What does this fold into?
Amino acid sequence: MGNTIFSKIIDKEIPADIVYESDAVLAFRDINPQAPVHILIIPKIEIPTVREIKGEEHSQLLGEMYDAANSIAKDEGISEDGFRLVFNCDDHGGQEVYHIHMHLLGGRQMNWPPG
Ligand code: 5GP
It folds into this structure.
């Protein structure tokens, strides 16, 4: 039982356009895409922010999230041109949903600094 909208997506209580699912990880299209490809890759366990990530405890989970990102990027046809992976953290990071999520963005040229 979690506290965010993403827990409801994991529990299939609200719909999402799911592109990848395993026992530990779920990935689905962002409802408000900021690029032609914008997918959120999340752990099924609730970790509110990246501050709570512990290398010893979560390394396998994080590894699977990066594997999923690479696999989805290939499936979406954005792997060769490149893409961006982003974790927003808390207020200054621009985090809105307090269940960690990796944004996979691609299909257009990204800018830097991100603003
Ligand atoms: P954050 O700002 O926390 O890094 O990113 C949260 C992301 O979740 C935003 O890009 C937002 O569009 C997306 N989002 C919020 N609610 C929903 C939802 O109900 N479904 C989907 N698919 N994406 C959502």
Remarks:
- The chain has one domain: 5-106.
- The domain at 5-106 is CATH 3.30.428.10 (HIT family, subunit A).
- The radius of gyration is 14 Å.
